[in-house]
Amino acid sequence: MTKFVTEPERRLDISQSAEVLIVGGGIAGISAAIAAARGGRKVTLIEREYCLGGMATLGLVTIYLPLDDGLGNQVIFGIGEELLRLSIKHGAEANYPRVWIEGGTIEEKKKHRYITQFNPHIFALEAEKLLCGLGVNILYGTLAASAVMEGDKISGIVIENKSGRSVIECSCVIDCSGDSDIAWLSGADTALHEGGNGLASWYYYKKDGDVRLKMFGLADLPPSENPQEKKDDPYGNATVASLTNTRFSGVDGPELSRAVIEAHGKMFEDILEHKKTDPEYVPVTISTIPLVRMSRRLCGEYTLDESENRVSFSDSIGLTGDWRRPGPCFEIPYRTLYTNKVRNLLCAGRTISVTDAMWDITRVIPGCAVTGEAAGTAAALTYDFPSLDVASLQAKLREGGVKIHI
């Protein structure tokens, strides 16, 4: 017989109020907070860890993927470019984008995409300084536990942290959790990625006096791939291989713990193997969150697919290229960010409404910045997102330098 307990009913204090409540402090959350705060809103950002940046910093996936289409054309501007420049304000770890920042020719730009590699710790500190300077209220160590609904709108989010359990009342929510947690908690339709996630545990190590990034394992190989097959990474640094056949959804607690432990074990084996020939080989830092790439997403009012390369949408809120290959370019419809079922909720980052094929394109840093900026800008204009005049949103985005149409 299934055992259970019934929690006694209790009253929860409203601990804080926000006009815009952002859940998740990754690249999408940072971008949304910047845009909403600059738009004059009172913004609170909650983050379960104690550092901003998500996968980009805590996960050590320190590759700022391309802001261009691979054909020499920059397609991402605005906050997406602002954050790239911020990430290397104190110097790039690798791939300094000289031809893009210092005025290279079109032929040079065709040969060298607008990418870079940044230091995760400096980037996280700069992002925190930026948000605090804009008046964003950051609550670290805080988990979103449930959504308080009033009809088809969220009136508050139940949170848990060291102060206990309470409610943040809000006018709207931007879900940048990476796993559509708020969409799921509020009753919006969501979908899981069919392929799941592979094991990975990136780490920095010291060798010959230099600190280097080890891309240990891929988290985005489909299950059909040979797990021992080596792949050249797209940045020309090294080869990257899948670790095992293990796949995990990213939204199951015990499963996540098992996946992290297995990834840690493989990483430890790798470190010890290197130490056999180089006793001074030591890890400097390891990823401190699971390397989840595609887990759960919103089923929004439109679902974008990879086949819609260079298709124009009247409600486009920005562009993204394809980090995997030169040529493709996509307009991202505003309708991929919202659902009529929860009218004051937007999703941004890797939680927007896309097919599994498109997910691998939009989940990375540039796409997260584009959709985060759009969500934060929309929240500065209205709290009823399906009724927003898209032309006014596009005008505001253009003011910030965003390119709307191809």
Describe this protein's structure.
It is a single chain. By secondary structure, the chain is of the alpha+beta class. 27% of the residues lie in helices and 25% in strands. The chain has ten helices and 21 strands. Strands 1, 2, 5, 6, 7, 8, 20 and 21 form an eight-stranded mixed β-sheet that branches. It is globular.
Q: Can you lay out the helices and strands and say which pair or pack?
A:
Layout: E1 14-23, H1 27-38, E2 43-47, E3 63-64, H2 78-87, H3 98-101, H4 106-111, E4 116-117, H5 120-133, E5 137-140, E6 143-150, E7 153-161, E8 164-175, H6 181-185, E9 190-192, E10 197-198, E11 203-207, E12 210-214, E13 230-232, E14 239-241, E15 247-248, H7 253-277, E16 282-286, E17 296-298, E18 316-321, E19 329-333, E20 338-339, E21 342-347, H8 356-362, H9 365-379, H10 390-399
Helix pairs in contact: 1-9, 2-9
Key terms:
406 residues; three-stranded antiparallel sheet; 25% strand; alpha+beta
* Category by helix and strand content: alpha+beta
Say how many strands there are.
21
Shape: globular
Number of helices: 10
> What percentage of the residues does DSSP assign to strands (E)?
25-35%
Largest sheet: 8 strands, mixed
Cα(first) to Cα(last) distance is: 59 Å
- Ranges with pLDDT <50 over ≥5 residues? 219-239
Provide mean pLDDT, rounded: 93
